[in-house]
Amino acid sequence: MVLFEFVFYMFAFVVIVSAMGVVFSKKMMYSAFSLLFTFFGMAGLYVLLNADFIAVTQIMVYVGGILVLIVFGVMLTTKITGVEIKSGTLGRFELALGGVVAIAIATFLSIMYLNVDWMTSNMSIEINSTTGYIGFGLFTEYLLAFFIAAILLLVAFIGAAKIARRK
Amino acid sequence: MAIGLTHYLVVSAILFSLGVFAIVTRKNAILVLMGLELILNSANLNFIAFAKFGGLNIEGHIAVMFIIVLAAAEVAVALAIVLNIYQNYHHIDVDEINSLKE
Q1: What ipTM did this prediction achieve?
Q2: Using the beta-carbon criterion (under 8 Å), do A72 and B79 form an inter-chain contact?
Q3: For residue B27, which phi and psi values (nearest 5 degrees)?
Q4: Looking at beta carbons, which residues of chain A come within 8 Å of B25?
Q5: Using CA atoms, how far apart are residues A22 and A37, in angstroms rounded to an integer?
Q6: Which of A15, A28, A33, B51 lies 20 to 30 Å (CA to CA) from residue A67?
Q7: What is the pLDDT of residues B11-66, one digit of tens each?
Q8: Which residues contact B14 (CB under 8 A, 6 or more apart)?
């Protein structure tokens, strides 16, 4: 299983480094493209966790939809003539304070995760694909939530088109 | 050392704290949205990891489906509002914006 560990650490490295690129890079466009690699790395981690359908959904929705929207947002909200596509940071004190808060959250969560004795099950059911199970669950037990999510998407997109339209 | 549940949880904790850092320190509204996406992704990773190591149940996957739907709706509405704010203010600095009308 050395290969599995290697692949896991590779994807985890990609996710964390590109997320740091999102957070720390000075230019908006670099942040957007780092977010692309974060989403692909997350899809890889999902594949390692036997979640094939979620991995493909991640790539299609996040990379194909959300990231394109974000890139459009970056391009539409910057002045074409002005050079600055700056992400804009705060002063040194606020930056240090935010860093301390973020590091405190990370260490607290990590210590908690490492110390709790998680009740994991050793059942090793071999599932080839989760797609059928997800579809079965969506149309039986979670049918109401599924329909509400569909109506929510419809309302949100009509509302977004209404808000974004010029007068 | 075999890859267990805690490996994925630690990755998601780091991702979460990076998202919080982006939300707290960035002034640009779109970068705040990107931090929000990082936080939602870390929640998704937790759901999938628990779904696998808690006995391969499918409920975690369905929760992640709904989170992805909510993230798509949220980004669409938020970017529409950001574009409107940009038309009024000609910048999207969240420290300066205090009204949705002119």
Answers
A1: 0.89
A2: yes
A3: -95, -25
A4: 89-90, 94-95, 98-99
A5: 10
A6: B51
A7: 999 999 999 999 988 888 889 999 999 999 999 999 999 888 876 678 889 999 99
A8: A16, A19, A106, A110
